[in-house]
């Protein structure tokens, strides 16, 4: 029965072997006869502290006091009192005697004296940290004295420990006892184990064992004296050796001196209550104490107070002790963000503070909270996450990005806010390398296909730039199907000049290593050459540079095929051309620039010594835009019809699959597969006649005399606009060529359909000069001396009959 009661009081377990914790190295100091060890949990390896007290006699007074401390620590709970986890007693044989050891397991802590030496704080930062620590201990002592009517009996530096978050906590409850001053029948010592307290820490009435005077004193009288001893030891930096040393006030801060003297009053009834100390002392009013106090009651503040606080916090954090910011403030901020009590501006502060952490600590303490924030529906929080993604994006693993982050970010591609769409687009520069091929082909490319026709010209431009930068992360089949179509059919035909030059042309140059010579000659160069006569000078200059670059690739291919060491299939890439790195760097910097247009630095192009002028952003977006401020307005007024861009020479101008190319996911489609191929443009009537004449031999009629030669320039008229509605690119088709030479005498074309074998018939060269009878040029008027082609055909038929 005695053993059962002993186990209830002392704790669970039968010995140190059954203790579910590992005991490590001891600290150099601890209160009383206790030994303070580092420890870890056997279950999960989490750190703990283990306190051990040994005695050779089971009836030893130290062991009895230790058991009192275990009981009190187990039952008294307060944020500023050491947290109890486990306790046990173990018996062992030490020669002929039995040794009894009491173990207490608590949260991981360190002795205050050792933590102060480790932090090494000085001047103002030291005083601010001391003020915060004394504030916490004063709350603990006030709780014991005023709320629980308990007397600690030995408040000093040795009875204070510090947690991993640098909070101060009170322990050493061996002397702790109830205050029985209200009990008239009480007699004898009020503190049963007061003999454990050093004489230097005892107030005058306790030194004299005047328990009647102690019982007549307020409950806080003994511990207020001890709190004064704590203040002296803290600021003097030495352990108190005798009571007379307390008279030296030189180390005590002036703002705390009057309160210090009232705590050590010789009259016990006049000593200052620790609760009043917190309310009245100026010493506890500083930036660190106010900041932590605000964070502790953050949920009680309104939105205006929160916003004001978090906007000031980044600058304030620079002035606070760095270790306290990282170990105390940062975890509090991260927790408040995760559980919704903090607003979006707090994210900026968290990211700034976390930049001071080692990368290992950041990944463990902060990154999980950031990942959870992506699921928030707060648009301001999403904007903050995307604006600072370059600060933490590299720390995200590929699995977390693909499974937890991207599904939430993808909703921003179709957001009604252009600003959020653009931030989402720019974030892909960091996240795309971590996405799986399935996610990129089935989701990301579809969103980018829609953004390439976005109403905002800057978003269209940046989408093209992003495609150029993530091309290396696409598989070969996807690159074959997407890149050329995205850059030529859409980017090079965009009405916004930077989308053609700064994005389309530069993206083609930066990704030229992915194109074979056939694609360069038949699909890329024909589309780029047309831009050499673009209305915008910057587009023209980039077009000439791109033409030079691709022509150099073709020349290198020709030289290799002509040499004896040719290997058959030749694919010369951009890697052999100087300047490829600057092209990729240009595209990347253009996408990530967040400053104003005037702050954007010019970037050198591949084959030119001159620099590309910086771009100007469109309103509200501020990314890649026109080469001059005037081009921003031109983006809304420039008509696509004014640009002489030819139709694509391929069989499909859309984003369909190219013959012979198989993607890894044949059953899946990206955004470019849904676009229907464009129809071949229908030429004007005059051009159709000329083309038909070029495709059949010209023969002189034997029976007809040679008509007089006239130099007639037939006038042509275009078909009505309604006939071109079916032609997607009819508005930018090349105009019909005019010739001053003599027209051919041929029969009219039976059909207006262009030969499918000649996709470039719409921009064919003028017909050669002949001496045959002139043809009539459609519906245009002719001079009286030149008969129309129809009349000549009728005359020739009648003469034959």
Automatic annotation (TrEMBL):
Q: Where is the Protein kinase domain?
A: 2-284
Top-level taxon in the UniProt lineage: Eukaryota
Q: Where is this region: Disordered?
A: 636-801
Biased-composition ranges for Pro residues? 699-708
Q: List where Basic and acidic residues composition bias occurs.
A: 662-672
The HEAT repeats are found at 524-560
Q: Which InterPro entries match?
A: ARM-like, ARM-type_fold, CIK-Related_Protein, HEAT_type_2, Kinase-like_dom_sf, Prot_kinase_dom, Ser-Thr/Tyr_kinase_cat_dom
The UniProt GO MF terms for this protein read: ATP binding; protein kinase activity
What Pfam family is a match for this entry?
A: PK_Tyr_Ser-Thr
State what protein this is by name: Protein kinase domain-containing protein
């Amino acid at each position: 029965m005695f053993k059962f009661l002993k186990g209830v009081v002392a704790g669970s377990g039968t010995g140190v072997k059954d203790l579910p914790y590992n005991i490590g190295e001891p600290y150099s100091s601890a209160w009383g006869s206790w030994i303070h060890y580092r420890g870890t949990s056997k279950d999960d390896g989490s750190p703990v502290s283990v306190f051990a007290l040994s005695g050779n006699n089971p009836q030893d007074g130290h062991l009895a006091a230790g058991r009192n401390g275990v009981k009190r620590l187990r039952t008294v709970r307060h944020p500023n009192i050491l947290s109890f986890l486990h306790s046990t007693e173990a018996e062992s044989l030490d020669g002929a005697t039995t040794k009894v050891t009491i173990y207490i397991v608590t949260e991981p802590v360190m002795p205050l004296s050792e933590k102060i030496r480790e932090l090494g704080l000085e001047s103002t930062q030291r005083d601010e940290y001391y003020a915060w620590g004394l504030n916490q201990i004063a709350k603990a002592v006030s709780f014991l004295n005023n709320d629980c009517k308990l007397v600690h009996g030995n408040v000093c530096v040795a009875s204070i420990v510090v947690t991993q978050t640098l909070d101060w906590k009170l322990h050493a409850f061996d002397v702790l006892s109830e205050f029985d001053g209200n009990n008239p029948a009480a007699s004898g010592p009020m503190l049963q184990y007061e003999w454990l307290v050093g004489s230097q820490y005892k107030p005058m009435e306790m030194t004299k064992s005047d328990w009647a005077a102690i019982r007549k004193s307020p409950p806080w009288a003994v511990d207020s004296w001890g709190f004064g001893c704590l203040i002296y030891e803290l600021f003097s930096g030495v352990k108190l050796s005798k009571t007379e040393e307390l008279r030296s006030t030189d180390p005590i801060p002036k703002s705390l001196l009057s309160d210090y003297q009232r705590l050590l009053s010789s009259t016990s009834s006049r000593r200052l209550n620790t609760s009043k100390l917190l309310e009245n002392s100026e010493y506890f009013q500083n930036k660190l104490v106010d900041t932590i106090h605000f964070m502790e009651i953050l949920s009680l503040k309104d939105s205006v107070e929160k916003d004001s606080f978090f906007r000031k916090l980044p600058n304030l954090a620079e002035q606070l002790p760095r270790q306290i910011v990282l170990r105390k403030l940062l975890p509090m901020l991260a927790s408040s963000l995760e559980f919704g009590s903090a607003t979006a501006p707090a994210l900026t502060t968290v990211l700034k503070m976390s930049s001071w952490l080692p990368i290992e600590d950041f990944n463990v303490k902060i990154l999980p909270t950031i990942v959870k924030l992506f699921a928030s529906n707060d648009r301001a929080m999403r904007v903050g996450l995307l604006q600072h993604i370059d600060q933490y994006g590299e720390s995200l693993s590929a699995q977390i990005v693909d499974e937890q982050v991207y599904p939430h970010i993808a909703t921003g591609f179709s957001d009604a806010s252009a600003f959020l769409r653009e931030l989402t687009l720019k974030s892909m520069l960091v996240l795309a390398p971590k996405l799986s091929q399935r996610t990129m082909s089935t989701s990301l490319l579809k969103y980018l296909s829609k953004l390439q026709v976005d109403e905002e010209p800057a978003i269209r431009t940046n989408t093209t730039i992003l495609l150029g930068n993530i091309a290396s992360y696409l598989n070969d089949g996807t690159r074959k199907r997407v890149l050329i179509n995205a850059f030529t059919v859409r980017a090079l035909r965009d009405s916004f000049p930077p989308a053609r030059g700064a994005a389309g042309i530069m993206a083609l140059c930066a990704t030229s290593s992915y194109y074979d010579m056939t694609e360069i000659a038949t699909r890329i160069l024909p589309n780029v050459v047309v831009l050499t006569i673009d209305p915008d000078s910057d587009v023209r200059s980039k077009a000439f540079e791109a033409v030079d670059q691709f022509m150099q690739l073709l020349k290198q291919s020709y030289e290799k095929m002509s040499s004896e060491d040719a290997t058959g299939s030749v694919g010369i890439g951009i890697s052999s051309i100087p300047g490829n790195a600057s092209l990729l760097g240009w595209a990347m910097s253009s996408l990530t620039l967040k400053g104003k247009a005037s702050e954007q630095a010019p970037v050198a192009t591949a084959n030119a010594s001159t620099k590309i002028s910086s771009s100007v952003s469109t309103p509200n977006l501020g990314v890649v835009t026109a080469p001059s401020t005037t081009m921003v307005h031109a983006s809304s007024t420039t008509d696509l019809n004014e640009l002489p861009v030819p139709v694509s020479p391929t069989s499909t101008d859309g984003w369909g699959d190219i013959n012979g190319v198989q993607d890894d996911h044949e059953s899946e489609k990206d955004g470019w597969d849904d676009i229907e191929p464009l129809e071949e443009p229908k030429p004007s009537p005059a051009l159709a006649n000329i083309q038909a004449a070029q495709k059949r031999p010209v023969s002189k009629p034997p029976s007809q005399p040679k008509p007089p030669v006239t130099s007639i320039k037939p006038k042509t008229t275009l078909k009505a606009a309604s006939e071109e509605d079916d032609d997607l690119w009819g508005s930018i088709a090349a105009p019909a060529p005019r010739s001053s030479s003599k027209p051919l005498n041929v029969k009219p074309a039976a059909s207006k359909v262009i030969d499918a074998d000649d996709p470039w018939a719409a921009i064919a060269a003028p017909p050669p000069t002949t001496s045959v009878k002139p043809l009539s040029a459609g519906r245009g008027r002719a001079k009286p001396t030149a008969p129309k082609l129809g009349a000549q055909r009728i005359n020739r038929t009648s003469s034959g009959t």
